[in-house]
Amino acid sequence: MTTLAPTSTRTPGAPAATRTASGVVSSLRRIGSLVRAESLLLVRNRTALFNGVLLAPAMVAFLHFSGAFGAFVGDDAGASTIGAFALTSLICFALMFVVYYNLASAYVARREELVLKRLRTGQCSDGEILAGAATPAVVTMLGQLVLGGAAIALWIGLDAPANVLLLLVAVLAGAFVFTALAAASTAFTRTVETAQLSTLPVMALALLLSGTTLPLTMLPERVQVLAELTPLHPVAELLTIGLTGLGPDGVAVGFGETFALAAAPLAVLAGWCVLGAWLATRYMRWEPRR
């Protein structure tokens, strides 16, 4: 006797789509809970709060009053060009102090308190844990971008951005890279106190070779080529192109041409996104060494 297989009347793909949507909502809820907890800890930690909110703007203000910005871009540069360089410097400092250093310290602190270990035994994935801790720092950096941009426009002078898309890519991709590097830095950071020393080489090299704290023309040509491959340099390049729309010869280009100028730094930054993700996955330490 022949047996006929039962025919399903369910719509193909509908249950899977529902499960996917439900999973995304649940993931966002878990990340939201972690963000609230991390934000509360950030507010209570005065040192981290100072590093995250005031340190980068204070350094930019110091460089402006010392005349360093004019020396970098040229004394004959217009106010808008100097303002664009000031905002670029602010974002680069924020990526270093607000995102990289603060997150490296936060990840190590949560690890030593066994918070990360407990979270991993629950429903949170590794990515959700890292994202939950990083979100307050990234939001703080974005706040500095908005408020700092407004202050610089009134204080120094700043024209409308030439390419907002490049600005967003530079800021968000830069935040991703240095969040990943902060996670990877936990491999050689034993305590919160030693984070000041363990993160210093990365911060010093990234800032010095970014073009915001030292004119790269002062360096040998080979070092200049290597500087273009460091993680913060393409961020600074994209910010400069997005804010000013100026080519290497100082001549303004159109909106479409800014993408051609940004091709090389975009490729370098994309490479660092991939490398940073691999380093974080490979070297992030979730439990303290005993």
From TrEMBL:
Keywords per UniProt: Membrane, Transmembrane, Transmembrane helix
Membrane topology term: Multi-pass membrane protein
Keyword ATP-binding: no
Residue ranges of every copy of the ABC-2 type transporter transmembrane domain listed in the record: 31-241
GO CC field: membrane
Superkingdom assignment: Bacteria
One of the record's GO molecular function terms: ABC-type transporter activity
Entry annotated with the keyword Membrane: yes
Residue intervals passing through the bilayer: 48-72, 84-108, 129-158, 164-188, 200-219, 259-280
UniProt cross-references to Pfam families, sorted A to Z: ABC2_membrane
Protein name as it appears in the record: ABC transporter permease
Subcellular location: Membrane
Family matches, as InterPro entries: ABC-2_transporter (IPR052902), ABC2_TM (IPR013525)
